[in-house]
Every structure is written in structure tokens, then in C-alpha cells.
Design goal:
Largest sheet: 6 strands, mixed
Protein name: Phosphoadenosine phosphosulfate reductase
Keywords: Membrane, Oxidoreductase, Transmembrane, Transmembrane helix
Strand order of the largest sheet: 3-2-1-4-6-5
GO cellular component, one term: cytoplasm
CATH topology: Rossmann fold
Order of helices and strands: HHEHEHEHHHEEEHH
Number of helices: 9
Strand content: 5-15%
CATH architecture: 3-Layer(aba) Sandwich
Radius of gyration: 18 Å
Helix content: 40-55%
Pfam families: PAPS_reduct
Shape: globular
Number of domains: 1
Number of strands: 6
Pathway: Sulfur metabolism; hydrogen sulfide biosynthesis; sulfite from sulfate
Length: about 260
């Protein structure tokens, strides 16, 4: 009931006001981002809030919310470079987490084989996203995360609330731009000169790992088109039930 009450109140606020509320209300708050357009809008908003806070309190500018970036090792080079550039541009602390005991693609494939995303997609998602995210949350004492998910992205995101409680783990997820559409996001990026991934100017619409992301040659209205082409899939596992993903991975490992 309390969560429902909060969402009713938050839905009437602008994303900036939602973020201001979260900063003073939610302990252990971080932004998880792969530096897509929505994540970059949130990062820019947080930067402005941080600057206003410093001016009001007469302190040196300090980005108030640290960033978590999950480096799957299969990101486009442009994405990895953008993560570093954005962190520097906004003076935002950046925590990078990779698959356990892996620094390179070669390390990962030596342990798990090549093209794991084709042979065992769920295990791949667990190893490159789910496990590193839980490790990040535990090491950094994360209690709440800001995500860039929006309802207009459809799929499993079509009915998300601004504030969610993850089943099992108790992690709070804040989706401040849940009610924004792509046009608003794009307009903000342009109006505020926010740095973004150059691949978006080459036909890519939603950017993930290079092996599961393709540019578009059509006028599809779906924001997530180009991801996991030909598969009935809209999420990488990061926003699925952690314990189910973990149990499935352990079962698959034992079977193997």
C-alpha cells in the first residue's frame, strides 16, 4: 500500500523532481546504466541537481549519485568509450564490473567457450549481467538503483511503475523517466547537448552487445528493434527474478 501511495504521488512529478526526492529519501542509491539515451538524460539531470546542491550549500561540485556500468566484454568499443567520456564529462564516480575472474573476451571464452549466447543464452545473461550486478550491489552496499527503463519501450517494460520493489532481493528500482516517450528523450538530448553513442547516428536504435544488436533499415516504431533479432526476448536478465536466474544457471552448470 505504501509503494502504491508513493507511485501515485511520484507520477505527478517531473523526472527532475523525482530524482531530487530519491536523493534525499533512498539510502544506498546508485545509477545503473549502459549509457543509452535515457540513462544519459538521467545522468545529465543528476549532474544539474548536483551543481544546484553545491551552489546552495557553498560546496565544491560533486556528482551525488555514483554510476555502475556492467562491462559484458562484448560491448561495442563506442559504448565502452562513451562510459569513460560521460563519467569524465559529468565528473561522476564510475564503478565498472565485469564477469567474475575475467578482464578480456579471451578470459571469458577460455572459461565458458565461444558464442555462449547462442549455446546457452540464459547462462550467458547470468554470467555477464546478473552475477556482476549482484556482486556490485553487495560490494557497494547498494539498496536502490536508478534505471533508464520506460513504458514506451514496450515488452516487459510496458507497465513499469516509477518505483518498484524487486521480489526476493528487496532492491528498490527507480524509473524516473517511466512515462516519457522517445521523442521527449531525444528532444532533451539535443536541447542540453548531452553526449551520446555515435552508433545511434548509424541506424542503431537500442544498443547492447555487438552480437545481439543490429542497425535498422526500416521505419519500425519499436524502440527496442534491432536487439535479439528473431528471438522472443526483450530483456537481458538484469530485470528478471535473480533467484530464478541463479537457480537455472546452477542447474545448467551441473547438467553440463
Amino acid at each position: 500500500k505504501h509503494l502504491k501511495h508513493l507511485n501515485e504521488k511520484l507520477s505527478s512529478l517531473s523526472p527532475q523532481k523525482i530524482l531530487e526526492w530519491a536523493i534525499v529519501t533512498l539510502p544506498g542509491l546508485y545509477q545503473t546504466t549502459a549509457f543509452g539515451l535515457t540513462g544519459l538524460v538521467i545522468l545529465d539531470m543528476l549532474s544539474k541537481i548536483s551543481q544546484d546542491y553545491a551552489e546552495e550549500n557553498g560546496t565544491l561540485p560533486q556528482h551525488l549519485i555514483p554510476l555502475i556500468f556492467l562491462d559484458t566484454l562484448y560491448h561495442f568499443p563506442e559504448t565502452v568509450q562513451l562510459a569513460k567520456n560521460a563519467s569524465t564529462h559529468y565528473n561522476a564516480p564510475l564503478h565498472i564490473f565485469k564477469p567474475i575472474d575475467c578482464e578480456t573476451v579471451e578470459d571469458f571464452e577460455a572459461q565458458h567457450g565461444q558464442n555462449l549466447w547462442e549455446k546457452d543464452e540464459d547462462s550467458y545473461d547470468f554470467l555477464v549481467k546478473v552475477e556482476p550486478s549482484r556482486r556490485a550491489y553487495e560490494q557497494l552496499n547498494v539498496l536502490a538503483v536508478i534505471t533508464g527503463r520506460r513504458r514506451s519501450q514496450n515488452g516487459e517494460r510496458g507497465n513499469i511503475e516509477i518505483l518498484e520493489l524487486e521480489k526476493g532481493t528487496g532492491l528498490l528500482k527507480l524509473n524516473p523517466l517511466a512515462y516519457w516517450d522517445f521523442a521527449k528523450v531525444r528532444a532533451y538530448i539535443r536541447a542540453n547537448e548531452v553526449p551520446y553513442n555515435p552508433l545511434l547516428d548509424k541506424g542503431y536504435r537500442s544498443i547492447g552487445d555487438w552480437h545481439s544488436t543490429k542497425p535498422l533499415n526500416n521505419d519500425s516504431s519499436s524502440e527496442r528493434d534491432g536487439r535479439w533479432e528473431g528471438k522472443n526476448k526483450t530483456e537481458c536478465g538484469l530485470h528478471k527474478d535473480y533467484f530464478k536466474m541463479r537457480a537455472a544457471f546452477i542447474a545448467a552448470k551441473k547438467k553440463k
